[in-house]
């Protein structure tokens, strides 16, 4: 078949050109994203209920939603947290659940639950998480005049948001920090009292004026007309002129005579700051099929247009997440460039010719283009996961091409003509190279069956590696010999000899191999010592999720832990940002409740999230400790968490769930642990772990009001009037709302602008007989600490402590069980520790499957049950080289260094397979010892060239700087260490293993 194809070079060349052209078209159709589009198996239901306590939200809203969601298909856990004015239900599903269907079903359940929820409750928001939900950029918008914040909010919501949504590739535009306009009613209580009127009269008057006629029509002869009110109230001027009937029909006055009516910004529950100035932030999310590199310049251009169109406002772009993708693409481009240059240099160094390196320069881009067509066929986007798979596959492609070129040249030296050299030289290495590719696929492809996000990410990587390996096999076996024929068909008599450099290397190898061969047992023993070194380093090296990268950004989470409102929170945060100005270049903050539609967090009014960007990493290192000192000095009650700002890749793996959590509840599902119980609980865990109070145990000072119902009955007072008056005085009591063409303007009473006790004295309640009594006579109050959050799961309300630095939860379980029995409680242990343990068990099983697959593939190639073990025994030695260089360089075991070790695995098995396959072929005509020595000489050049090209191609990464280099450096270090040791393993360790594994009978035949 191969001879048939190579005898028609022009036809095959035309087919390749057509395939490359089709691949170019496919490449331009590929979406470019930061991460593959993955549905996270989680749904969040967010609830907002102004002026409602945490207890009310839990009992009236969250409990109903949580219990009705338990029947969702694939649901693994349901949890909720209620706090004042807001609540959240988190639904965790088994991975593999169809989240689109679950999202639709959850919305349908919310619609059916509407009659069971409070009447004036805003519809709960159902949020489905996806990797595509991560914003690609944040656009900061701030007014030059603080008084223009209302105008800015309206402009952003109605104009800027829509202009951004119209851009091709933009999926969602989310906003935080907007302020709505309300109509405020400020009664003149002295006038009301003199006229014997109350707030109820004002509220009733406004409500009656806002009644809608609805769908009413009249018939006039043969025509029918719909009726519409022409005098509907829509603004403060209309409200001011509403008539109020005085008691006992003493006359009619205008509403403006008893109250002040005006527009005002609503009472804020949260703010957004850019620097120390209040503003808005717009987060832009791309569509799944959009190309981020093409979208980002358009966004920047639109922002510049905003600056020109609206000079009264300031615009800026921050937290551009496309930089990580750009760096990944640049790294791939640099790998191709440097790989090609170094391959050319190494081939020239070993072969002297320029045509062989040029073959590599043609095969690499052709293979890459053909791989893109497979990307299109399998619907894989260009992202940092699939690009990393391409980078791994390209290294293997270089190795395969070098082996084929070297074997063709070997056949030409043996006297074969050009066509026979290309055919026979390629056919001889088809089986070992195909086995090497299949063994590499055997490592990656089973990883897609891992559970969770990790398995989904490996899916893209496994498919990209399978694509590039499949294409590389095709190009290695067809394109390389085809181009070789085209380059050398008119130069049959000229064959470049090996270079002077390689001749010297060959002589050195023969002498060193002779020395090792004379001391076989000692040499094998010394080389085998690398295996326990690798095992020891696995335990000694520090472990972490991601390598340390140069950070220039910090996230500070602040919980003031005091009963302050959003305005006070804002003032404190501005003061802190001003303090940071001298050593930071940029700051922004989200204060209190956030308005993002896709926000899955329920931040309280006392919470602030501050983002700081520094000029360089050294400024960050010096500045971070200052923050702790600042808060200890100025706000000792505040709880802060200082951490490096995560990039989008890290955000995907972050979770708010604790590593281990002990949940306590009583049989009635309502538990309120006392402070003494909490302290006892923390003390019994102190020796075993670090315990932190869960959200259900966080406390804050609250004012408790006790109503004397006997007095209310005696004086003929209505309990509902008492509650309404309290809401008018201290809450945002909404009378009604005016609607006009989609705009909704709430009408609210103005709060009492006096202290709490004075307000209680000022509030008056009218009895059935029309007599006013001060509310203070019917209530008592006290200030005391209370739990500010209510946490619950499928079993009901619980309170918990979170644990870290523990060895095994089985040690802690009897401690918690004993404590729970003493307190008549029930305890459950949960957390990500159990999921991690399950994933680890799954990973071990998958790796065992991978090893078995590799063994079966190698068994089929060598037709031996023993020789596959010779290949696999080289892996620990290569890993030892990776771990030793990682240890010397001060690195750690992390995701990126793990990828590097997988690269080493792919190259090591390639070299070992080639060596053993060559020995097997030579043993057909040579004795065992001679076959081993000759195989070493025959495969010396491709093995050493593979190592040189791979090591030299990735060495520049070690000396580069920036986040891209920081992420790629562990891959480079482990690859270089593994390749250097792996080269000596293939040259010396494999022959010794082969010798000792052969039977005595075979040795005697030499």
Automatic annotation (TrEMBL):
GO cellular component: plasma membrane
Protein name: AcrB/AcrD/AcrF family protein
A GO term, aspect molecular function: xenobiotic transmembrane transporter activity
Cleaved signal peptide residues: none
TM helices/strands, residue ranges: 12-30, 332-351, 358-378, 384-405, 437-459, 465-487, 522-541, 840-858, 895-914, 943-965, 971-996
Keywords per UniProt: Membrane, Transmembrane, Transmembrane helix
Protein's UniProt keywords contain Transmembrane helix: yes
Key word Transport present: no
